[in-house]
Design a protein that fits this description.
Low-confidence stretches of chain A: none
Number of domains of chain A: 2
CATH superfamily of the largest domain in chain A: Probable inorganic polyphosphate/atp-NAD kinase, domain 2
Shape of chain A: elongated
Radius of gyration of chain A: 20 Å
Strand content of chain A: 35-45%
Order of helices and strands of chain A: EHEHHEHEEHEEEEEHEEEEEEEH
Helix content of chain A: 10-25%
Oligomer: homotetramer
Number of strands of chain A: 17
Number of helices of chain A: 7
CATH class of the largest domain in chain A: Mainly Beta
Chain lengths: 292, 292, 292, 292
């Protein structure tokens, strides 16, 4: 049993169910938890897969009961956990199975050690800015979504451009014909934003990065707005289908004339940091950033 | 009546039927043709719209009967004409209605003058290289298509990467996770290729440009292959839908394991050049290339 | 005479002496000032050129005597004024003669109106972050300089790379072979940083942008650090000459083994904003940013 | 002694004299040559360093006497050999000591084997296009130089832009303010051109790549000209010093009003290709092109 007083005693567990290693590691966590008198809660399907149906907890309940969420998977699984915990202040410890993630930066090797440090209150927790994207149609709010990485407005059909008008406080910022437009948080700057040519932003900063996807004009360039900027995007007539996608998951179908408002969210995500790695080390290892 | 001996006496006419100016200009051409004893042929729907149903000619017949194809529309209408004329050596005179196109570089003002010069054999005709894209599934050819601008393999769902393996004569060239991959002709280098960050190539050159769309890795960069390169792209498992799109129009749905072979086509497109504009002038005017 | 109570009554004047319009506009300001009982001070050479040798004031004195500095020239003249005012809180009103500057955003037309608003305390003043670059050789500080736009470490001989090791708190960030490395403030993000491929950052933000100049490796990408980051650059052996240049002006010759520390300065520059233009309007007008 | 009839019996040897491995490998070659009755010629300084002063041959004589030039060094040493052999058709076999070069693609391990294949006429020889850059001042030719990689017009003082007007057959192509302008051959596309953001071109192609270095405007983009294009660059007033540099070595100081003509050279470089590596393999290994 852990010899130190614990600040956290109830943990949630989310696993990438299709991945054998995730299930095996979940079993390890469950054994370790029992030995150390830590309560564990799983969402119903995960509980089933891990062979502990009694620990199944409805997603809504989960965030009220736990002190810490452990994610066994990749960045995609962690983003699902972020949506599940929205509105709570439960921190997330992401374990990467295979490869290295920006969000799941703890390796399976160092995981139990990191978990123990976390329960003892000795891990570093970073507050990460999130985005809110609100869709208005005919002046009426029809959708409101959240993103830890990015809110992307894009064509539903690649190679068919869409037309967007970007404004801030009624002032025109730019008019754009492109495959899409990415609004990324600093955390999301190393995700889709990077593929589209955007800059890397240190993840605890608070700014909004706007990067076009395959813009029709040569003079475009990513721009970084202050975090308190409320950006409005008016959807034009061009193209056939247009979508708003949050964190590569949640999608809203957009129509010409729709207004998408993108701004800093009141919500945040709290991430447990690995004790032994700097952000720059992850950049170099995962992206070969500035490495040969 | 034209005072010079004419080398071409039968012209085809394709128009963007939704565009009023195209229909009006078609009427002007028809009047001019009658006056000058030039025969005109239109595809059935265009003949209907222009009010000359008697001149309707099936697309298959069209390319056999005409000496010159006149396109009244934009680059999209011209690309449709290219597909219609495939396999013939009929040159195309593209007139741009509104704006300026790379393929339709003649303006409505200078059009009749350019047409007369062309019929007299005094216009410059450029032979433009095309691409062939052949799709093999289970070793069997299932599709073969042609493109004047580009053959693009892309995700059917933006922001969901696909996985591609590029080989030349069995040698690995690169392995790629991206939104897609563009193979452009020099003519197409100023189309989608440019939006994705590719270089401009003088249009009468003969090379194949390969440019990734939002690649997952930082070290990617466009590459230019010799025209006689046969490039093979093996489609990976990643992603949900994958498409091959030719000139932004014709599409083939791809499956994991499919092989797409991209190479220089035996077909060419012959374009009438405007008498008064250099390529660099079009670059500066249309793209504001290297202009403030 | 101005009908409003004035918050500022003594102005400094710096002009681009080679420019006729600057000298003419200086005469206009001097007349206006006399009429409105505003005291004017000029640095000795400017006073000579403007034909008012009696108003000559040593640069050191200038910043103690004035409430406002008026710059008649371009962004380069304004950067010289910034160096002259270092350590004071005197705001700067930059008038652009010909073209449009990011720092000198007031046009000659609107200038007197903007000046009067400023003296009445009605203009918006923006505090702009600056950088400090300290050079250590053999552990000893040998130079300390300031920049409003950028601190650039670069080869003294273009096309001959230099080698740099970037560290933060002893942690390696990256190792670089390149023509140089730019550290830009948000204000400087639209200067040299933009030419080298860096992102645009809204100018009142507080971050440090690091952008390589012609890096040897493909995987490089600009990165944005928090404003409180102390960045250390170790100069390598490669190349023949290496320089540190501040705001494109002040230069320090660097040697292998030197350590350059770049960080947010304790100093700031206070800029008077034009009453009628947004930052995005300047971006579009001056850079044709995202415009055709 | 080599058991096959030899097509080449006299080889030149150039070595990077500061490099121990080069000197050691030169000794190996000399021993091997004596055993196989191959004549070896060295330029005087190299002969001295290798301890064989009797084999010293003036550079001018060298290219007349030899059938093959062997280069022991890196890409820089090979470029020096190219200049020495200008006007002859002697092929070059480049051996890379440490790392991998694009020009010196044969490793020390495989070297003797590759040399024997070459002497037997069994190696693949590639003809590589070169550039000629002619400088005119006041209508008079003042310099004419050659390059295998690139001809670069650049500021003598980084971060101080120069102004260039590019024309083809008197037609304006573009007007540019930048740190410089690169004209690269396909061979040189992976050298400085790549650092400045230019595309990779398969090395046996015949085109001219023009890529700006840190251009002042956002809308710039590399462009690829046909090989028979004669490009004229007029040097503007801006800046203090301007240089023309060929292959990163030979330099010509330029003045405002000078005209630099860049075109395909009548000379070519003939390179021996390694038997066991494709170009794409070198791209991936040396540049980590498109690799993580």
């Amino acid at each position: 049993m852990l010899g130190f007083p614990l600040l956290m005693k109830r943990i949630g567990l989310i696993l990438k169910r299709e991945k054998k290693e995730a299930v095996a590691l979940a079993r390890t966590v469950l054994d370790w938890a029992q030995k150390n008198r830590i309560e564990v809660f799983l969402e119903p399907e995960g509980a089933q897969t891990a062979g502990v149906p009694k620990l199944a907890t409805p997603p809504d309940e989960l965030k009220k009961r736990i002190d810490l969420m452990v994610v066994l998977g990749g960045d995609g699984t962690l983003l699902a956990a972020v949506r599940m915990l929205l509105g709570s202040s439960v921190p997330i410890l992401g374990v990467n199975l295979g490869g290295l993630g920006f969000l799941t930066a703890v390796s399976t090797d160092g995981f139990l050690n990191c978990l123990e440090l976390t329960l003892q209150g000795k891990s570093k927790i970073e507050n990460r800015m999130m985005l809110t994207a609100v869709v208005f149609r005919g002046g009426k709010k029809i959708a409101e979504n959240y993103a830890l990485n990015d809110a992307v407005i894009h064509t539903g059909q690649l190679a068919r451009m869409i037309e967007l008008e970007v404004r801030i406080q009624s002032d025109k910022v730019t008019h754009l014909m492109a495959d899409g437009l990415i609004f990324a948080t600093p955390t999301g700057s190393t995700a889709y934003n990077l593929s589209a040519g955007g800059p890397i932003v240190y993840p605890t900063e608070e700014v909004i990065v706007m990067t076009p996807i395959c813009p029709h004009i040569l003079s475009n360039r990513p721009i970084i707005f202050p975090a308190d900027t409320e950006i409005e995007v008016k959807i034009g007539e061009m193209g056939e289908r247009r979508l708003l996608t949050l964190d590569g998951q949640t999608g809203v179908s957009l129509e010409p004339g729709d207004l998408v408002q993108v701004k800093k969210s009141v919500h945040r995500t709290r991430l447990i940091m690995p004790p032994d790695k700097t952000y720059y080390e992850i950049l170099r290892t995962k992206l070969s950033w500035a490495e040969r």
